[in-house]
Recover the amino acids of this structure.
C-alpha cells in the first residue's frame, strides 16, 4: 500500500514566509529533508504571506507560478515546507497535474525509508494510515455506487467508503500489535528497575550527533550519517560508570520543529524509553546558528510526551567547528553539572561527559527507611510497583518497616501523590 512514489525524484520546493513565529519554517532544513528522502531539488519558489490561502495555501498567482515551474524544470513533484489541508493538496494537484506533498508527508516518507525493525515499520504504517485517512478522496474520481447486475453486485458503498472501512480495520490491527510490543518493552523496563539500573536517554534535534556520541560512549556501531532522521529505531547499550555501576544508554529518534502529531502518537511506545528515563542527555549542535530554537523545539516535544519533568544534562556537541572552544563542564550554584562541551566526532570531552553522568546519577538514587502503618497500604503497594524495596520487616505494632532505593524522579512523584504521608513515615 505504501510503495514509494515513482514520480518523486525531481522536485520543486515551496517555502512561504509568515510573520507569525509559530508558522516559521527553515528553508535550509527543508532542503536537508528533501535530500534525506533521496529527492533532487530543481527549483525553489518563495514568497511572503500574512496567512494561508484557503484554496491553494499560496495565492492564485503564486500557485500558477508553481504550475509553470513544473513545466519549465520538468519536475514531477511539488513539496511544501508547510502542512496542507486535504482540500489544498487536492486543488494544487489538479492545477499542477503532478503529486503534491506537504512537510508532514515528506517526514513520513523519510521515516518509512529508515524503519528497520518490526515495531518501527508498524509505527510508520500507523502514522501513514492516519495521515491518509483524510486524503482518500484525492486518488478517486470514480466514486459512483458499485454496478448492479449478475456477478456485479457489491456491498452498496462507494469505493471511498470501502477504503475508509478497510483503513479502519487495518489501523485497529496495527494498534493491537503495537500494544503487544509495548508490553514487551514494559517488561524490559521493569527488569531494569528491579536491578536498580538507571537509564540515560539521548534526545535532541535531528542530526545533532546523538548516534555519533552513542557510538563514542558505548563502542557500538549504530548507523551514522550527515542527514536528518538517520536514526529511527531505538538502540540500548550498557555502560559502566564510576560510583554508579551499570547504566543503560538509549539512542532515540531525533526531534524536529512541528513534528507531525500522528508521528508522535504512533511512536508512543518508543518514546516511552525517554519518558521513563532517569536522566536525559539533551544533545545540541552548537555549530547550528538556530541551536536555541532547536532546544525550544525539543523541549516542546518532551512536554508533549510527558517527559518534561525528567532531569536534563545539556551536551553542546560539535565544538570542533570552533577554534576557541575547549571541552569543559559547566556547573550550577550547587556544584551540579548542567552543561558539557564536547565533540562526539573526535571524542574530545567524552571523558568529561562520563564524569558528569557519574556525579548526577550517583545522587539520583537515594536510600530511605520508612515505617508504614497498615492504614497506608496504598503507599506500600506503590513502592512494590516501582520495584524499589530492598528489605521488608514488621515490628510489634504491625507497622511495615521498609528499606528502599528509589530515584529522585519517582520519589518526587510519590511525594506529590501521597502528600504529607511519606514525610510522616520517614525514619530519620
Amino acid at each position: 500500500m505504501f510503495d514509494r512514489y515513482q514520480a518523486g525524484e525531481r522536485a520543486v520546493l515551496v517555502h512561504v514566509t509568515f510573520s507569525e513565529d509559530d508558522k516559521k519554517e527553515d528553508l535550509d532544513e527543508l532542503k536537508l529533508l528533501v535530500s534525506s528522502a533521496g529527492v533532487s531539488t530543481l527549483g525553489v519558489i518563495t514568497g511572503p504571506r500574512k496567512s494561508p490561502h484557503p484554496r491553494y495555501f499560496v495565492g492564485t498567482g503564486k500557485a500558477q507560478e508553481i504550475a509553470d515551474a513544473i513545466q519549465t524544470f520538468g519536475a514531477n513533484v511539488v513539496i511544501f515546507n508547510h502542512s496542507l489541508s486535504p482540500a489544498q493538496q487536492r486543488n494544487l494537484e489538479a492545477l499542477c497535474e503532478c503529486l503534491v506533498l506537504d512537510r508532514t508527508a515528506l517526514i513520513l516518507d523519510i521515516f518509512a525509508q529508515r524503519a528497520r525493525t518490526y515495531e518501527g515499520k508498524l509505527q510508520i504504517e500507523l502514522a501513514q494510515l492516519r495521515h491518509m485517512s483524510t486524503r482518500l478522496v484525492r486518488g478517486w474520481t470514480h466514486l459512483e455506487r458499485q454496478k448492479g447486475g449478475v456477478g456485479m453486485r457489491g456491498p452498496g458503498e462507494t469505493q471511498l467508503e470501502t477504503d475508509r472501512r478497510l483503513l479502519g480495520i487495518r489501523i485497529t490491527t496495527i494498534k493491537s500489535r503495537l500494544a503487544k510490543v509495548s508490553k514487551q518493552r514494559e517488561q524490559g523496563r521493569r527488569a531494569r528497575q528491579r536491578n536498580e539500573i538507571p537509564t540515560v536517554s539521548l534526545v535532541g534535534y535531528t542530526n545533532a550527533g546523538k548516534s555519533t556520541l552513542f557510538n563514542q560512549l558505548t563502542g557500538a556501531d549504530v548507523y551514522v550519517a550527515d542527514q536528518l532522521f538517520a536514526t529511527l529505531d531505538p538502540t540500548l547499550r550498557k555502560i559502566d560508570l564510576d560510583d554508579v555501576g551499570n547504566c543503560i544508554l538509549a539512542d532515540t529518534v531525533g526531534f524536529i520543529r512541528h513534528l507531525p502529531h500522528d508521528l508522535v502518537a504512533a511512536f508512543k511506545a518508543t518514546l516511552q524509553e525517554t519518558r521513563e528515563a532517569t536522566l536525559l542527555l539533551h544533545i545540541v549542535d552548537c555549530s547550528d546558528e538556530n541551536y536555541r530554537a532547536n532546544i525550544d523545539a525539543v523541549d516542546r516535544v518532551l512536554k508533549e510526551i510527558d517527559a518534561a519533568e525528567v532531569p536534563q544534562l545539556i551536551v553542546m556537541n560539535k565544538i570542533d567547528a570552533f577554534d576557541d572552544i575547549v571541552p569543559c563542564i559547566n556547573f550550577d550554584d550547587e556544584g551540579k553539572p548542567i552543561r558539557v562541551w564536547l565533540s562526539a566526532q573526535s571524542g574530545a570531552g567524552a571523558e568529561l561527559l562520563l564524569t558528569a553522568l557519574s556525579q548526577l546519577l550517583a545522587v539520583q538514587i537515594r536510600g530511605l527507611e520508612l515505617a508504614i502503618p497498615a492504614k497506608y497500604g496504598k503507599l506500600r503497594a506503590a513502592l512494590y510497583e516501582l520495584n524499589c524495596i530492598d528489605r521488608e520487616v514488621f515490628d510489634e505494632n504491625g507497622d511495615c518497616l521498609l528499606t528502599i532505593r528509589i530515584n529522585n524522579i519517582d520519589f518526587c512523584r510519590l511525594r506529590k501523590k501521597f502528600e504529607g504521608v511519606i514525610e510522616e513515615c520517614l525514619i530519620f
Observations:
- The longest strand covers residues 40-48.
- The chain has three domains: 10-112, 195-362, 365-425.
- The domain at 10-112 is CATH 3.40.50.11060 (Rossmann fold).
